Every structure is written in structure tokens, then in C-alpha cells.
Amino acid sequence: MHKRVDRPLFPELMDGALPYLEARRALADLDRVNRLLLGVGAARRTLARRLAAEAAPERPVALLDLGTGSGFIAREVARAAGRMGCRVRVVGLDRRLAHLVVGRALAGRAGDGQLRVAASADALPFRDGAFDWTVSNLLFHHFGGLSNQAILAEMRRCSRRGAAVVDLRRSRLAGWMIRGLFPLLGIGRVARHDGLLSIRQSWTLAEVRELVAELPVEELRRRFPFRWSLVVATANCRPRQSSAGVGRDHPRSLAAGSRPKPSASTTAATIARSIARAASTPTWLGWAATSPRARVTTRSPS
Ligand SMILES: C[S@@+](CC[C@H](N)C(=O)[O-])C[C@H]1O[C@@H](n2cnc3c(N)ncnc32)[C@H](O)[C@@H]1O
Which atom of ligand 1 is the closest one to the Cα of 72? Predict the structure, then answer.
């Protein structure tokens, strides 16, 4: 059994209920840190090309971002794939509804086109293969081995192509950098506290390798300066040969080939139905879609 399986983890401040303005400041700080310390680049390099490889003229590529926070990382990844000619439909999922609300607010008046869902990463309210890819950024270090294995299993269950994870790599140097650099950058109390705790609780590459030894790993590598990326294929992963082929191989997918050019509202409705069907999940689901017309809130009957 992996030595980190039972390690107790300390909760980050952002894992608790913060006043709205503090959560907003913390997520905006995190976006800045992701940008300045090359976190965006790590996620982009891990996923953008892979998304672009799934591009098809008749439908957008579906991406689920777990622990999405503000949604900034998923937005940047989608933008990078867009520059390669790939339309990406992003669903951002987070346990804290407040973070989704902040993310929507930070996206500004025009919005970012993302659908936002409040649920837990270890019990995803989606059908098998509902997305092309699933991704998480800075979520892995929140959990021990068993939880991460459960989350990876959910990510793989819900994706047709694969699951990508990007997170911090534990190192002394990273801790010193955060201590020295964050105050200079004007990073606030919450992000400073959580940043240091995150580095201490993060995983080394060797620990991740041991944890995923049984999985079909496509990529596990360092990402400069302080991150690693992991890409795991799904159980029945069959890389796309032609767009029509994927629709037929995955009749229950969001991307059924028989539905050319689904509109944003069609996609929203499909995912909303999927959530409603998964109402047995003992969790509260808040749905904040980008269009006010597509906004749905559903509560499990339990
Ligand atoms: C450090 S933030 C990272 C946010 C974003 N991915 C980024 O890189 O900027 C971690 C996020 O994961 C969310 N989170 C923590 N545990 C979760 C869980 N079990 N299910 C879904 N989201 C979770 C937190 O609410 C928080 O928004």
C-alpha cells in the first residue's frame, strides 16, 4: 500500500467557507500565481495539443475541469487549443459553490462560456464517457492516496480519451520561493498560507509514479519550475480516427455523431439532464451556466 495513503492532510483556508470578498481575492491571487509561476503554461503544454487532436468541425471538444476554482486555467487551455483550430466546451466543477460564483464574476460581463457545476470530484454527477478529456490543476495535493485513486477513477470513467492532472512538485526550493516571492508580488493572506501548505502537502514525482503504477500512464513528467503533469488513458480509450467514428463508438456521449453542431443551449440541456439523472448522488448540485436561460439548480432527493 502506498505510504501516503493514510497521511493526514491539513485543510487549506480555501477549503473552508471564506467570506465572498476573501474568496474572490484568494482566487484572483491564485490566477496571478498560476500565470507568473508558469502554472498556466504547464497545463497548456499538457493538454492543448491533446484537445486539438480531438477537434471535429461538427462539435466542440468537451472538457471537464475538476476543482476549477475561478476557471482561469481551463479557459487558458481552451484558448490555446482554440489557436490550434479546436473549439472547446468547458464544464468547470468545484465543491465550493462560492468559488464558482467568484469565477463567473471574475470572467466579467461577457463571461467565459463555461458551464459551472458544484459537486465533489470523487462522485462526479456525469455519465460514463460524457467528456473527451477531464483535467485537474492544483487539486491532487489536497488528498491522500486513496482519495486520489478514487478521483482518478472518476476522471477516467467520465472521459472518452483520458484524464490529465497537473500539480505542484514538493521541494524545499519551491517553499523558499513562495516565502520570498509572494509578499513581493502582493499576494494576500489566504493564497500565501495555502501556497505554503500546498507545497508541503504536494507529491513528488516518485510518489505519484508509485500511486499510478497500475494505470495506463501516457505521460508523467516534471513541468518547469515546480510542477508535474500526469496523463492517464481511459479504460477503453480509442484515439479518434475520424469524427464520425467517435460518435458511433460512444453512443451515450455528449458528442453523438448524429447530432451535428449542438448549440450551447443543447449542450447545457444535455448536461443538465445528465445531472438530474445522477440525482442519487448524495450531494447538492448548484449549476451556474453562462447563460441566465440555461441556469438550473437541482437538489438530490436524499
Ligand atoms: C488550489 S484551488 C485550484 C483552483 C484551480 N484549479 C486553479 O488551478 O487555479 C483547489 C480547488 O479545488 C476545490 N476542491 C477541493 N476539494 C474538492 C473536491 N473534493 N471536489 C471538487 N473540488 C474541490 C477547491 O474548492 C478549490 O477551488
Answer: 9
* Of 151, 163, 136, 150, the residue nearest 235 (C-alpha): 163
Q: 17-74, pLDDT tens digit by residue? A: 999 999 999 999 999 999 998 899 999 999 999 999 999 888 999 999 999 999 999 9
| HEC readout, 31-55 | HHHHHHCCHHHHHHHHHHHHHHHCC
Task: Quote the number of domains for the chain.
Answer: 1
Q: Which of 68, 233, 230 shows the shortest CA–CA distance to 138?
A: 68
How many angstroms separate the alpha carbon of residue 251 from the centre of ligand 1?
A: 31
Pocket test residue of 97, 142, 166 for ligand 1, highest count of atoms within 8 A of CB: 142
C-alpha cell at 171: 521541494
Instruction: Locate 94 and state its grid cell.
Output: 468545484
Pocket probe for ligand 1: among 75, 99, 112, 139, the residue whose CB has the most ligand atoms within 8 Å is: 139
Rounded to the nearest whole angstrom, what is the distance from the C-alpha of residue 16 to the centroid of ligand 1?
Answer: 11
Q: Are 294 and 268 in contact (CB under 8 A)?
A: yes
Asked whether residue 2 is assigned to any structural domain, the reply reads no
Q: What's the pTM value of the predicted model, to 2 decimals?
A: 0.81
Which residues span the domain enclosing 24? 13-299
Q: Domain of 263: which CATH number?
A: 3.40.50.150
